[in-house]
Task: inverse folding
């Protein structure tokens, strides 16, 4: 009888362990962002904005001594993202042919001029939410190209658009968030043939994070 009970307990423990492993694997998969195209090519047409924005957004937190220091969401404004944003803007704005053409030209020009990243930052100490201060900021910010080179931004500006507009485009924007647009020099090792990854690195004296976009 004791042997039967022992076997039953062993089988139950094995089932529990197997279930725990499945849950862990599912959680790991859920945390792994899907690969994105880093070729820099514009798609033939814009995709679903919400889906595309999720695909191009990365998130991470910085903690020190069990306290949350900062939380960051970063959306890399790739050609795929810009095309989806354009399609959404045309659809919701009821733009005429000329206005649509002007908007498309501006987006293509902006993409050619620099690599832009929309950053939504929350800090435990509101005084540390100061990315726009450049070298005087408590943070250091780089874009890391496919060869591992750290590229500092050309500029980082606060996104001063109305909060409801920012929130409609970037759902991670909350009551204690600050939105920024960081612009980096465009090179063929950030977007281009053969680029397998690009990363955004944010650090301070209390820690840092690296957000990575991988190609398929």
Result:
């Amino acid at each position: 009888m004791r042997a039967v009970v022992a076997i039953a307990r062993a089988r139950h423990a094995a089932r529990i362990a197997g279930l725990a492993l499945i849950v862990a694997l599912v959680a790991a998969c859920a945390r792994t962002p899907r690969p994105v195209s880093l070729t820099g090519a514009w798609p033939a047409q814009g995709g679903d904005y919400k889906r595309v924005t999720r695909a191009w957004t990365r998130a991470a937190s910085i903690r020190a001594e069990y306290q949350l220091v900062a939380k960051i969401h970063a959306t890399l404004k790739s050609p795929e993202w810009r095309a989806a944003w354009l399609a959404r803007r045309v659809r919701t704005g009821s733009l005429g042919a000329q206005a649509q053409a002007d908007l498309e030209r501006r987006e293509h020009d902006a993409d050619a001029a620099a690599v832009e990243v929309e950053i939504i930052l929350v800090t435990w100490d509101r005084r540390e939410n100061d990315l726009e201060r450049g070298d005087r900021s408590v943070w250091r910010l780089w874009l890391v190209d496919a060869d591992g080179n750290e590229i500092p931004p050309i500029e980082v500006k606060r996104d001063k658009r109305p909060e409801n507009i920012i929130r409609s485009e970037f759902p991670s924007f909350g009551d204690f968030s600050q939105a920024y647009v960081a612009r980096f020099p465009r090179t063929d090792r950030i977007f281009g043939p053969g680029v397998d990854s690009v990363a955004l690195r944010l650090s301070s004296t209390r820690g840092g994070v690296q957000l990575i976009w991988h190609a398929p």
About this structure: The CA atoms of residues 73 and 147 lie 23 Å apart.
